[in-house]
């Protein structure tokens, strides 16, 4: 028998204090009935003796303390899951918003997930093809990895996210692949862009979308990524699918966390974010991976916009500690009209070496990757040197590298948002660009590969 409490004593922002409660547990779901009969939902954030602090999902506007009652439902926030979710669009709390029928759940799962025993984790080692050369060729995504995209305000991270969701696939046949897309605090226009793109290209047929809009309650934003990951865990570990989870924008999520922290009058950390931001982000990122003995996997691509393009800001800074690398979008390349504007020099995939090579991509992948990276870095230095000292000050090798860097930007990076390159095409394009550089400068590639792909010297 659920008790109903009429002892709401205080409401501050999205938080409500209820007194005289018994047997209430942390994270328990709460049903709040306001004076006009409207029902709102919340969860228990803190318990102190017979007092419970409740966090409201729909906000506290218009609540009358005297006539408001609460019922504690005895279970945490759950998501009803089923394979029928594929191809559907939900709001941030898992309610269908695509005018389709309600989901009949196969089971209900706590959205906070269960901790994965580190011993049962399998090491990520299989290549995922995104069709984007700068990722596949130089910062390879591996099945079970978490690889964030660091962007800036106004940069086309949404186009990159849609392109990856549309094009990503696991090489090899007969494996079920799905995309779970979680959007937090995006505008209606952005949401419509994703829905239209997924629908038009047919990607919706293998995708599940969770949409939390900018005008939805900020508190819903805290639940949205966990809803998306709960759906992904069900598809991966119960149904044996390989799931790619794309979460955008983690900065909006952290802002919502800061809002709740301020309402709780917690001591702020860096830039006003709560001191537990690192721990909280890890509860999202660490839900990626593979389990031994289970066929499915979860690969994560979280997207975050760096405030003022500052990579030392707490959100990208802490994300970099938890995840396995980062893909960085460059404002400089964006201004040059390069699409997608991925800057490969500071970008990194820490697991790329595990997902490439013979039997996975091609035997020359590691060598060409290292050589292209080194050549591009040398070419950018040579270009900067030419601006200061003039082109006559450059050696022949420097001029070749500068030419290589220009061609790399125009041909390799600037592929557009609709070009889907296979890994073979990406590697062949790499060799085509490396032919610009004198063979004597290809010091990071084995001679046998140079002979095979560039032809033997007479």
TrEMBL record:
Keywords: ATP synthesis, Hydrogen ion transport, Hydrolase, Ion transport, Transport. One of its GO terms (biological process) is proton motive force-driven plasma membrane ATP synthesis. Residues 131-349 form the ATPase F1/V1/A1 complex alpha/beta subunit nucleotide-binding domain. One of its GO terms (cellular component) is proton-transporting ATP synthase complex. Residues 354-453 form the ATP synthase A/B type C-terminal domain. The keyword Transport applies. The keyword Endoplasmic reticulum does not apply. Pfam families: ATP-synt_ab, ATP-synt_ab_N, ATP-synt_VA_C. CDD domains: ATP-synt_V_A-type_beta_C (cd18112), ATP-synt_V_A-type_beta_N (cd18118), V_A-ATPase_B (cd01135). GO terms for molecular function: ATP binding; hydrolase activity; proton-transporting ATP synthase activity, rotational mechanism. Residues 9-74 form the ATPase F1/V1/A1 complex alpha/beta subunit N-terminal domain. Belongs to the ATPase alpha/beta chains family. Produces ATP from ADP in the presence of a proton gradient across the membrane. The V-type beta chain is a regulatory subunit. This is V-type ATP synthase beta chain. It comes from Parvimonas micra. The gene is atpB.
């Amino acid at each position: 028998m659920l008790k109903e409490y009429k002892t709401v004593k205080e409401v501050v922002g999205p938080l409500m204090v209820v007194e005289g409660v018994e047997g209430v547990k942390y994270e328990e779901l709460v049903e709040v009935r306001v004076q006009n009969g409207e029902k709102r939902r919340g969860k228990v954030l803190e318990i102190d003796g017979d007092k419970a602090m409740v966090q409201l999902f729909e906000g506290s506007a218009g609540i009358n303390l005297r006539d408001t009652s609460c019922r504690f439902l005895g279970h945490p926030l759950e998501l009803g899951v089923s394979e029928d979710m594929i191809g559907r669009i939900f709001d941030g709390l898992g309610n269908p918003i695509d005018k389709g029928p309600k989901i009949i759940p196969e089971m209900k799962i706590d959205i906070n997930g269960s901790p994965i025993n580190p011993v049962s984790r399998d090491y990520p080692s299989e290549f995922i093809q995104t069709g984007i050369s700068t990722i596949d060729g130089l910062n390879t995504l591996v099945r079970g990895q978490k690889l964030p995209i660091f962007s800036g305000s106004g940069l086309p991270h949404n186009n990159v996210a849609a392109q990856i969701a549309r094009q990503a696939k696991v090489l090899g046949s007969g494996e079920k692949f799905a995309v779970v897309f979680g959007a937090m605090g995006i505008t209606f226009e952005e949401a419509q862009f994703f829905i239209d793109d997924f629908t038009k290209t047919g990607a919706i047929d293998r995708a599940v979308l969770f949409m939390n809009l900018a005008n939805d309650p900020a508190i819903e934003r805290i639940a949205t990524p966990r809803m998306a990951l709960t759906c992904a865990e069900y598809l991966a570990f119960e149904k044996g699918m390989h799931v790619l989870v794309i979460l955008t924008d983690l900065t909006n999520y952290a802002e919502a966390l800061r809002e709740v922290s301020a309402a709780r009058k917690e001591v702020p950390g860096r830039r006003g974010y709560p001191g537990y931001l690192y721990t909280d982000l890890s509860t999202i990122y660490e839900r990626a991976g593979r389990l031994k003995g289970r066929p499915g996997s979860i690969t994560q691509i979280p997207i975050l916009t760096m405030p003022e393009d500052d990579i030392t800001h707490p959100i990208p800074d802490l994300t970099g500690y938890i995840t396995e690398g980062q893909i960085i979008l460059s404002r400089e390349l964006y201004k040059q009209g390069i699409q997608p504007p991925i800057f490969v020099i500071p970008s990194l995939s820490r697991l790329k070496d595990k997902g490439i090579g013979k039997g996975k991509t091609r035997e020359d992948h590691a060598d060409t990757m290292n050589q292209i990276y080194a050549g591009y870095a040398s070419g950018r230095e040579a270009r900067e040197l030419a601006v200061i000292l003039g082109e006559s000050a450059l050696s022949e090798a420097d001029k070749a590298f500068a030419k290589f860097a220009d061609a790399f930007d125009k041909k390799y990076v600037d592929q557009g948002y609709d070009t889907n390159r296979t890994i073979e095409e990406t590697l062949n394009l790499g060799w085509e660009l490396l032919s610009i550089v004198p063979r004597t400068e290809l010091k990071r590639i084995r001679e046998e590969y140079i002979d095979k792909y560039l032809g033997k010297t007479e």
